[in-house]
Each structure stands twice: as structure tokens, then as C-alpha cells.
Design brief:
The protein has three domains: 134 residues; 296 residues, P-loop containing nucleotide triphosphate hydrolases (Rossmann fold); 73 residues. β12 and β13 form a beta hairpin. The chain starts with 8 loop residues before the first strand and ends with a helix. The strands form four sheets. It has a twelve-stranded mixed β-sheet. It is α/β, with parallel strands linked by helices. The chain is elongated. Helix content is 32%, strand content 23%.
Length: 545
């Protein structure tokens, strides 16, 4: 442990409250320009050490009258005033505290940390955090362990020591990755998914609407250069399955998916269509018409509807007891399904195969290829996830009945892009995704939400998010939404606003002991090599699940 008197001193505490945070007066010899919002610092109180984050920096002067005729920057008067009459004050938000008796033990760890219930005394010394502090609080990645609890996500803004998330805690709840377009959300998501596949006892199902996760994709390399980054299939060829809805797109990109998905019309039920009512602009009576058709024709209801001619729909409406105009509107909106390449009249149902992969412990990436219209995304995602929901409810109920560890389900994480489409205030109460976000934790299923518009997501769903990884957001509504239910949210707003546009993120929540701003790890050859110990350990798939 680094002794307090060997740490770099920054200043002393002059004001503060438990609610508003602390105020530090910066030492004259420390340049205010060295400090950044989000920097990790330590306050040494009388009985506790307070691990804190810088949230704001202010220039102050006493008395204020001296600013009426400010001297030039390099004049002698400016140097005389500096540090005494003119100085900087720094706002700090204490996040965790550690009893000095525990801090004196060389083996103190995250378990000794306490929530902040008080504040340090006047004139407490503030110092920079050390690498040992970061490692003790955020844990260390065990690269040679089969199931390391910790996964290196990045480094603090002004340090090179790893910041890790606790993967065991990460998979306990739904999580979110947020940031405006161009901030690197997809690569950050791929880091997280690679960590889950490498280390954790969990299965992933990824709805890959932009074809970014299974195989290589393009990344910015600076100065306008482009490079290609490896996909999850290339990193974990035996443990990741890539399925596609568009074999022609895969062929064009010269990739070979494990499965060309075909979905027969008989697999689609009214519950898969009803959540699309707003997107398809269906009339209010359309859901009722779906059920009328289903009651009459069961699994053939959709096929029957789409094979009628327009002029025959009145006859069909009479036959099933539905309103003719409602049936006609339903027909006009759903007729496009006949032209989708992955839909078929008859034949095998590959939804069953995808679910079998999950039960085998395989991680599934479902690529949409060029079939990335919102209607297709909503339909296929809802269709698959409803079946997954039914599967996991059944598996969990069996486990509760037998109480046999062999029957305990492997946790599943469903990665969902454009999440606000499924989880807006209206859809969240109708779609299966809202149910998963609110209730499915007890059934071993959680969501990984990837979105650039968190303000479009229902507040109740956001309140259930366990860990949030937030890149730059510019819209005030999005910033307010992503901090919903977060203690000390006002002070974190300035931290979010100060992030760089790429490769920086604020990480907070269930899988990390305290909020921290990190420079995200590079997704490059060095990262690929870090996965090698796991890949070369001779472990089979069964060893991981």
C-alpha cells in the first residue's frame, strides 16, 4: 500500500456537505489545467479515506474586487496574487470510504469499502489516487483463470492501470451501453461481449442489425484511415455461432455463416404481430382480426391471409367474423412478408435450431444482412425472444421444482441494438423486452441494451439497468435519462458533458464499486493476444458451462 505522505498532494478540503459533495482548494503549485472532470482522487480524513471523483473546477478570487482591474497573465502582480488571492476550487463527489484500520491492512480489498455516510473534516488532505488504489477497488483480471471474475475495460484518464468490471455481478442484471453515434459504442459492446464469452458462465444471443459483431467490421484508425477489426466468430470460432437472415449479403462480404435462417409462416403467431401495430400503422381493430384468423386457422392463419386476393378479403372477413376493413388493412401491411427471403411457406423452422444452440452453451450472433428494415428487426427480434422467454421460464420452474444444480439454467444475455424501438413507454408495456427488463432477472435472462437515445426508453426500464456504460451524449434529455435513479446524478452530468467524442466512457452501477471515467481499451491486436491464454488452454466448450 502506498503511504499517504508519498502520494502527490493536490489540495485541502475547505467546504462540503453529504448531499452536495466536497470543495477542495487547489495547492498553488498544482496547475488547474492538470485536472479533468472524472479524475479519481483520495481524501484523507481523520478516521476514513474517501475515494472521490472530480466533478467541477472553478476559478475563485478573494476579495472579488481584485478582478475589476485584472493584471496581465505574466505580470509580477499576477504571480503575487496566485495561490493567495486568486486560486482554484475543485468540486469532489465522494463515492466510497475506507476505515483507516482496514486501509492499514496490506490485503484490504473491495469487501472493506463502505458507502459514503459522512464527510471528512476541514483541511483534510486530497491526493491523487495510485495504481494500488485502482487495483484494490476495481479488482485485477486473472488472465490464466478459467473463470476470472474481473475483465479489463480500460484505464483512468490519467493512469495506465486497468479498470475492471465484475462479470459475476454484471450478468446478474440488465445493463446498458449508451452514447451518440460515432462514439464507439459498437466496439465498446464488442469488448464487453468478448469478456463475457472469455470469462463468464453465461450465454449471449446478439441481434446484429448492422453486421458488426459476428465477423470483421471497419473501424476508424485516425487521419482518415480505415482498418478492420475482428469479429467474435474470429476470436472464438468454436464457441460462437453466426446465423444470417440474408445469405446473399454474407456471400457478398465473403463470410460463411453457420446457419442460413429460414422461418415458415406457421411459426408466426398474433403475439409476434401485435407489438408492430404502431410501426405498421395498423388500425385499432387489427390485433383483434389477427386473433380471429388464428382462432379459425391456427398455425396457418398468416399463410391463409396472405394467399387471398384483395377482392376476396371480404369473404375471408365474413368467414372468421372480423371487420372487412380491418382484415383489408392487415393484409396490405403484412403482404410485404411474402417477399422476405428468410420467410418460407413450409419447411424447417430454424428458430428451433437457434434455441438449441443456446441450450448447448453456444453464443449466437444473428446477422440481418441487408434485411435491416425496422419492421424486419422488430418482427424477428420479438419472434425469437418470446420463444427464449418461454424456454427460460420453463427451465427455471423445473430447477425450482427439483432444486438440482444440474437443472440450473445458464444465464442468458440478449444484446439489443436500437433498444428504444422496443422499450419506449408504449412498447415496453406490450413487448416481451419490457417484461424481460422488468421481471426476467429471476428467470436468468437479462438484456444488454445498446442505444444512442436513452431518453426514448421507458423510465421504469431504465431504473432496472444494473450497470451503465455511457459515452458522450449531447442531448440534455438523453443525459438526464441515462442518470435516472443514479445517486449524485447532478454532479455526474458535468462529467458526462466533458467526455471526449471517442474512446471515453463513464462506467457506473452494479458491476463496479464506484463510478469511474475510463479511456476504453483498444480493440486491436494487443487485445486479441490477451484472449490467447483462454483460447490455448485446451478447454472444451463443456469446461465453460
Amino acid at each position: 500500500m502506498t503511504p499517504p505522505n508519498t502520494r502527490k498532494r493536490l489540495g485541502t478540503i475547505t467546504h462540503g456537505s453529504l448531499l452536495e459533495g466536497l470543495e477542495m482548494r487547489l495547492l498553488p503549485e498544482v496547475s488547474v489545467e492538470e485536472l479533468r472532470a472524472g479524475k479519481f482522487v483520495v481524501v484523507e480524513g481523520d478516521t476514513h479515506r474517501f475515494f472521490s471523483m472530480i466533478t467541477d473546477v472553478t476559478l475563485s478570487a478573494e476579495p472579488p474586487d481584485i478582478l475589476r482591474s485584472p493584471p496581465a497573465k505574466h505580470q509580477l502582480l499576477a504571480r503575487v496574487l496566485h495561490g493567495e488571492q486568486t486560486y482554484a476550487t475543485v468540486s469532489l463527489r465522494p463515492m466510497l470510504m475506507l476505515d483507516h484500520r482496514d486501509a492499514a491492512q496490506p490485503d484490504w480489498s473491495e469487501e472493506h469499502l463502505q458507502p459514503v455516510k459522512t464527510i471528512p473534516v476541514h483541511f483534510s488532505e486530497v491526493t491523487e489516487a495510485t495504481e494500488q488504489d485502482v487495483a484494490k477497488i476495481f479488482g485485477r483480471e486473472e488472465r490464466d483463470a478459467l473463470h476470472s471474475r474481473f475483465f479489463h475495460m480500460g484505464t483512468p484518464l490519467d493512469m495506465d492501470t486497468p479498470v475492471c468490471i465484475n462479470l459475476e455481478r454484471f450478468i446478474e442484471r440488465s445493463n446498458g451501453i449508451f452514447g451518440k453515434t460515432g462514439t464507439g459504442k459498437s466496439f465498446f459492446t464488442r469488448l464487453v461481449l468478448a469478456g463475457l464469452i472469455r470469462n463468464a458462465k453465461v450465454v449471449n444471443f446478439i441481434f446484429d442489425v448492422h453486421n458488426e459483431y459476428g465477423w470483421g467490421s471497419r473501424r476508424e484508425a485516425g487521419a482518415g484511415k480505415k482498418q478492420f477489426a475482428k469479429g467474435l466468430k474470429q476470436l472464438f470460432p468454436d464457441r460462437v455461432v453466426v446465423a444470417t437472415l440474408d445469405p446473399e449479403s454474407a456471400k457478398t462480404r465473403d463470410v460463411k455463416p453457420d446457419l442460413d435462417v429460414r422461418i415458415p409462416f406457421s411459426s408466426i403467431e398474433p403475439e409476434d404481430i401485435v407489438p408492430l401495430a404502431a410501426e405498421l400503422n395498423l388500425p385499432p381493430a387489427a390485433p383483434e382480426s389477427c386473433y380471429c384468423l388464428y382462432n379459425r386457422y391456427r398455425k396457418e392463419w398468416l399463410s391463409k391471409l396472405l394467399h387471398y386476393e384483395q377482392q376476396e378479403l371480404k369473404e375471408l372477413a365474413t368467414e372468421v367474423g372480423a371487420h372487412p376493413e380491418s382484415i383489408s388493412a392487415l393484409y396490405r401491411k403484412l403482404i410485404r412478408l411474402r417477399n422476405l427471403p428468410f420467410m418460407s411457406e413450409k419447411g424447417k423452422d430454424d428458430i428451433r435450431k437457434l434455441i438449441d444452440y443456446i441450450q448447448e452453451g453456444k453464443h449466437v450472433v444473428l446477422e440481418f444482412g441487408r434485411q435491416s428494415s425496422l419492421v424486419v428487426y422488430l418482427l424477428v427480434s420479438n419472434l425469437l425472444t418470446r420463444r427464449i422467454h418461454e424456454l427460460y421460464v420453463g427451465k427455471t420452474e423445473k430447477y425450482l421444482a427439483t432444486q438440482d444444480l444440474k437443472d440450473e439454467p445458464t444465464p442468458l444475455i440478449i444484446t439489443l441494438e436500437e433498444a428504444h424501438r422496443f422499450l419506449n413507454p408504449v412498447a415496453a408495456r406490450q413487448t416481451i423486452f419490457g417484461t424481460i427488463a422488468r421481471e426476467m432477472r429471476k428467470y436468468y435472462v437479462n438484456l444488454l441494451i445498446v442505444d444512442q437515445r436513452p431518453s426514448g426508453i421507458d423510465d421504469e426500464v431504465l431504473s432496472q439497468i444494473g450497470t451503465r456504460m455511457v459515452a458522450l451524449l449531447n442531448d440534455e434529455k438523453d443525459i438526464a435519462a441515462v442518470l435516472t435513479g443514479v445517486p449524485g446524478a447532478p454532479s455526474l452530468r458535468s462529467v458526462l458533458a466533458g467526455l471526449d467524442s471517442r474512446q471515453q466512457a463513464l462506467v457506473l452501477g452494479h458491476a463496479t464499486p464506484m463510478p469511474v471515467v475510463i479511456r476504453t481499451r483498444n480493440y486491436d491486436e494487443v487485445f486479441y493476444e490477451s484472449l490467447a491464454p483462454m483460447k490455448s488452454a485446451g478447454a472444451s466448450v463443456e469446461d465453460f458451462y
